[in-house]
Amino acid sequence: MRSCSRRTPHVPGLRLPMALSAILGLLALLMAGAPAATASDGPSASADVARLFEEAAKATERYEAGRRAADVQRAKARKLERLVDRERHQLRLLREDLGRIARNQYRTGGDISYTAQLLLADDPDALMRGQRASWQADLAMNNAIGKAQRTARALDSGEQRAQAAWRGLDAHQADLAQLKRGIERKLEQAQWTLQNQADEQVTAGRCRGAVRLDEREPDTGRPWVAPVEEYELSAGFGGSGERWASRHTGQDFAVGIGAPVRAAGAGQVVRVTCGQGFGIEIVVRHKGGYYTQYAHLAAVTVDQGERVRTGQWLGQAGTTGNSTGPHLHFEVRLTPHFGSGVDPRTWLAERGVDL
Questions:
Q1: How many Å apart are CA 244 and CA 237, to the nearest integer?
Q2: What kind and span of H or E run contains 10?
Q3: Tell me: the pLDDT tens digits for 308-319?
Q4: Is there a smaller number of Cβ atoms within 10 Å at the N or the C end of the chain?
Q5: pLDDT tens-digit profile of 200-229?
Q6: Residues 6+ apart with CB under 8 A from 303
Q7: Interatomic CA distance for residues 328 and 314, integer angstroms
Q8: How many CB atoms lie within 10 A of CB 41?
Q9: Where are the beta strands (DSSP E) in the chain?
Q10: DSSP SS3 for 285
Q11: Mean pLDDT across the chain
Q12: What is the pLDDT of residues 68-103, one digit of tens each?
């Protein structure tokens, strides 16, 4: 792998004064490390991508919350619709019963007054008891009809309110979806600006240097973590394919350009390079003699020699070097050099991290 460092060329037969040689040697030593970003680099696409990732995550969270609320409100409206339908059915049955009672009374009593019915009745007491029962039945029927009508009106009103509420939630959801799409478009533009800057660094073989980003304090409660938080596993250790000259030497995580890449464990950054097949890469040495590698990055947020904590951001994922799409290539090695890798999934699982 070609390093991003540069060395002063040796010209045979040329002798330099000792002081000048010392100055040139110091300059060469300074150039060997990854230089820091300068003011000419302009606004940081790294920071834009990190900020937009956060905004997109929050917009997605709000969108999902709105969708769930609208679904709940729609379910309430449908339940009210079913209640209204049942009440209306009961009301129709009550009205039919009332009609039958009225018709029956008309047939039995006709146009004869109640007084005349008493005078002509064989058993006036029985007639009075029957009439009293009929009045009570009529009163109960009227009360039931009134209650059913009031209930139907209340349910109609509640149904209309529920439907208006979920229509409002749907409109709010549409606004959230439009906001989410706008943020995602901005994020995509910022991601490819970041990737273009990274490709320029790899082509030049000169790393831009660490770009410091605002990040939340890493979770220090665990000694080891996955190198990215949200991902899909793609190519695994030992796999074969036309993309590799031999077996695949690490575990790939499919993530978006600019996704934060974090230290799998505490350690010290021993290499930051930006050339050859791995593109922009970082190697970290851990206690116990193991090393982890993070490759195909779009940016780095640490410098060579820096000590890092578990979960601390090391850089941002990308697709530099020999890469067919945005992802993180992650290796666990016995040495800092290519060819000494072990299976990262097994190694992490032994340390309590299941991918």
A1: 12
A2: none
A3: 999 999 999 999
A4: N
A5: 989 988 888 888 887 777 766 899 999 999
A6: 33, 34, 36, 209, 210, 269, 272
A7: 12
A8: 13
A9: 232-233, 251-254, 260-262, 267-273, 280-286, 291-300, 307-308, 313-317, 328-333, 341-342
A10: strand
A11: 77
A12: 888 888 888 788 778 878 877 877 777 777 677 666
Q: Which pTM value belongs to this model?
A: 0.61
Q: What percent of the chain has pLDDT over 70?
A: 73
**Which residues on neighbouring strands pair with residue 282, listed in sequence order?**
272, 294
Q: How confident is the model at residue 129 (pLDDT cuts 50, 70, 90)?
A: low
Long-range pairs, 195-200, Cβ under 8 A, ≥24 = 195/257, 195/298, 195/318, 195/319, 195/320, 197/45, 197/298, 197/299, 198/274, 198/279, 198/280, 198/297, 198/298, 198/299, 198/318, 198/320, 199/320
* pLDDT, tens only, 150-180: 777 877 787 787 778 778 878 888 888 888 8
d(CA 253, CA 232): 6
* C-beta contacts of 219-224 below 8 A and 24+ residues apart: 219/310, 219/311, 220/309, 220/310, 220/311, 222/310, 222/311, 222/352, 223/265, 223/266, 223/310, 223/351, 223/352, 224/264, 224/265, 224/310, 224/348, 224/351, 224/352, 224/353
